[in-house]
Amino acid sequence: MKPQHIQVLVAIAEHGSLRAAARSLGKSQPALTQSLKQAEEELGIALFYRTSRGVELTEIGERVLGRARSITAEIARLEDEVAQLRGEQVGAVSVCLSPLAAVRIMPRALTLFRKTHPNIEVRLSSGLFPGALKPLREGSTDLIIGPAPPNDMARNITVEHLIDTPINVITAANSPLLQARSLGELTDAQWIMIGAPTGPGDIFHQPFIDNGFTPPKALTTSDSYFGALSLVESLGALCTFPSLLLKVMSNSWKIAPIPIREEIPPLRISLMTRAGHPLTPAADKLAMCIRRQIGSM
């Protein structure tokens, strides 16, 4: 595929229609259609199929798009790196943060970063594995700060350990479940899972099994920490929560940890980057500021 074909593919996928993609690239729709046709002929496959709502990627098109996004991200990163090596304050760093990182790590790290890079754009997003890993692999995210994924999810990702945080089981500050002293007393409680079942919010299952208890079923999941805390506070529901974040959140939310005697393994917070893809000077500096902040915690 030629560079212009890659640009066209990404634009169509992001905008969902040929007309919108052509407008974003400043091209005519017939010219864009011709570029797409050339790309599909070179690859010998269909990348999109038409629907009543526009166009959608084929299964193979999804795979090609991942590569295309990675290529376009690397080109942009190359341009940023050369400019930064010339001493110019240009470009951007994209960082995906877990809630703990957003509250306890990033504010101070960003303050340090701004002392030397006042004009570099920093784009912050939120997420946990597994969902946060795809943008990192595709190059649209430079850094992830959050719970370390299992080894089988960390393909092509460099995982640098930063800090461990103990894990609490929390409930409403007025909940009778605060009298519990064992996980076995919490099997039938209403549990909230933060994030996907394969993510860090699922860590409460194994301690139940390890201690001979039937693990509870979390029938409610929340991609939002604030959404989960609202349910915990108002319904007296339960969820696991990092203690390094609980100290801050308990000032604003009526929540409290349950003093169970069984231990839940601590959550390992890590800095993640794409393996084999060096950071730009600006991204590398921000990573150094993150490490400095961890050293002061």
Descriptive tags:
alpha/beta; globular; Arc Repressor Mutant, subunit A; 3 domains; 297 residues; 3-stranded antiparallel sheet; D-Maltodextrin-Binding Protein, domain 2; 12 strands; 5-stranded mixed sheet
Structural class: alpha/beta
Give the N-terminus to C-terminus distance in angstroms. Answer: 48 Å
Shape: globular
Fraction of residues in helix: 40-55%
Output the strand order for the largest sheet. Answer: 4-3-5-12-6
Q: How does CATH name the architecture of the largest domain?
A: 3-Layer(aba) Sandwich
- Overall domain count: 3
The fraction of residues in strands falls at 15-25%
Name of the level-1 CATH class of the largest domain = Alpha Beta
Tally of strands: 12
| Fourth-level CATH superfamily of the largest domain | Periplasmic binding protein-like II
Helix segment count? Answer: 10
Major sheet details: 5 strands, mixed
Describe this structure in words.
- Helices cover 43% and strands 21% of the residues.
- The protein is α/β, with parallel strands linked by helices and 297 residues long.
- It has three domains: 3-77, Orthogonal Bundle (Arc Repressor Mutant, subunit A), CATH 1.10.10.10; 89-160 and 268-296, D-Maltodextrin-Binding Protein, domain 2 (3-Layer(aba) Sandwich); 167-265, Periplasmic binding protein-like II (D-Maltodextrin-Binding Protein, domain 2, 3-Layer(aba) Sandwich), CATH 3.40.190.
- The strands form four sheets. The chain has a five-stranded mixed β-sheet. It has a three-stranded antiparallel β-sheet with strand order 10-7-11. Strands 1-2 form a two-stranded antiparallel ribbon.
- The longest helix is centred in the first third of the chain and has 27 residues, at 59-85.
- It is globular.
- The protein starts with a helix and ends with a helix.
- The mean pLDDT is 91.
